[in-house]
Write a structure and sequence with these properties.
Blueprint (H helix, E strand, L loop, with lengths): L3 E4 L5 H12 L3 E6 L2 H11 L5 E5 L5 H9 L10 E4 L15 H29 L3 E5 L12 H20 L6 E7 L2 E2 L2 H5 L5 H4 L7 E2 H12 L9 E4 L18
Parallel strand pairs: 1-2, 1-4, 2-3, 4-5, 5-6, 6-9, 7-8
Helix pairs in contact: 1-8, 3-4, 4-5
Bound molecules: NADPH dihydro-nicotinamide-adenine-dinucleotide phosphate and 2-hydroxyethylsulfonic acid.
The site of 2-hydroxyethylsulfonic acid has 9 residues, from loops.
Length: about 250
């Protein structure tokens, strides 16, 4: 029987690329996001390859999360794979200048949103004693960089939650993985810099990871044999050595 995957943040970047990658392999999809028109476009693009159901909710709203997942039709209820991907950075400021609104957004979406979705999905996994949860962390969850403060904290939290999930869900045979990319060229920087021109420079002068590169690693993780769990992956583009060391071609800047 084909597996069912629920992907949050499926309207863009890593989540959308993962939806396309999973569809190639016939995995049935529950695609989540706030932008319904994008969900519809992706559903239309993929419906010949696999079954697709869309859910529109803001991960910050715990009632909407619970209601949306409870509303799944019977044929989509047994979720085998949960990709907790929805998230973003908001702002890049030293701590003394940071905006409380940005801090709330990052903690509410990246951390609490991930928990709300997990809370709604895990019970049917523990009941069936099977499942695979992949949390999309970041290199920012492994090291803190200047002005990264709260975004880095949110991704350190994702890593701690991933490790906690792996321990607590161990008796149920549920796999839990963290995939932690470095710089990936998506809408991420547009959101971080709120459309400011700064966003355009983030991926200039080097070849950043593409969403597809991450999607392929996610597919690799979910397609291992039953006894293998890819617990933690840190992936960079070749030009990146750490959060702050990126080899750029000056002539292209
Ligand atoms: P994008 O901005 O391209 O995609 C973010 C996705 O998250 C969108 O689909 C968006 O959907 C969804 N999302 C954001 N806020 C909410 C919300 N409140 N409720 C529901 N969905 C939400 O970024 P990426 O693809 O790059 O980011 C995906 C994940 O990867 C994030 O967790 C990010 O932190 C992580 N990451 C990104 C890296 C990068 O350099 N790009 C590197 C390392 C990790 P919609 O707006 O439709 O709701
Ligand atoms: C995204 C990578 O370096 O922009 O998580 O924080 S970084």
């Amino acid at each position: 029987m084909k597996k069912i995957a629920l992907i949050t943040g499926a309207t863009s970047g890593i989540g959308r690329a993962t939806a396309h990658e999973f569809a190639k392999h016939g995995i049935h999809l529950i695609l989540c996001g706030r932008r319904q028109e994008r969900l519809d476009t992706i559903k239309n693009a993929l419906h010949k390859e696999t079954r697709v159901h869309t859910l529109n909710f803001d991960v910050r709203d715990k009632d909407s999360v619970a209601e949306a997942i409870a509303s799944l039709p019977k044929s989509f209820k047994s979720i085998d794979i949960l990709i907790n991907n929805a998230g973003n950075a908001h702002g890049l400021d030293p701590i003394q200048k940071g905006s409380i609104e940005d801090w709330d957004a990052m903690m509410d979406i990246n951390v609490k949103g991930l928990l709300y979705v997990s809370k709604a999905v895990i019970p049917q996994m523990t009941e069936r004693k099977s499942g695979h949860i992949i949390n999309i962390g970041s290199s920012a969850g492994k090291e803190v960089y200047p002005k990264g403060n709260v975004y880095c904290a949110s991704k350190h939290a994702v890593l701690a939650i991933t490790e906690g999930m792996r321990i607590d869900l161990n008796p149920f045979g549920i796999k839990v993985s963290a995939i932690n990319p470095g710089l990936v060229e998506t809408e991420f920087s547009k959101v971080r810099f709120k459309g400011d021109a700064l966003a355009d420079n983030v991926y200039k002068g080097y070849e950043a990871l593409q969403a597809q590169d991450v999607a392929e690693v996610i597919y690799f993780a979910i397609s291992r044999p039953a006894h293998v769990n890819i617990a933690d992956v840190l992936m960079f583009c070749t030009a990146q050595a750490s959060s702050t060391i990126v080899k750029k071609e000056i002539s292209q800047l």
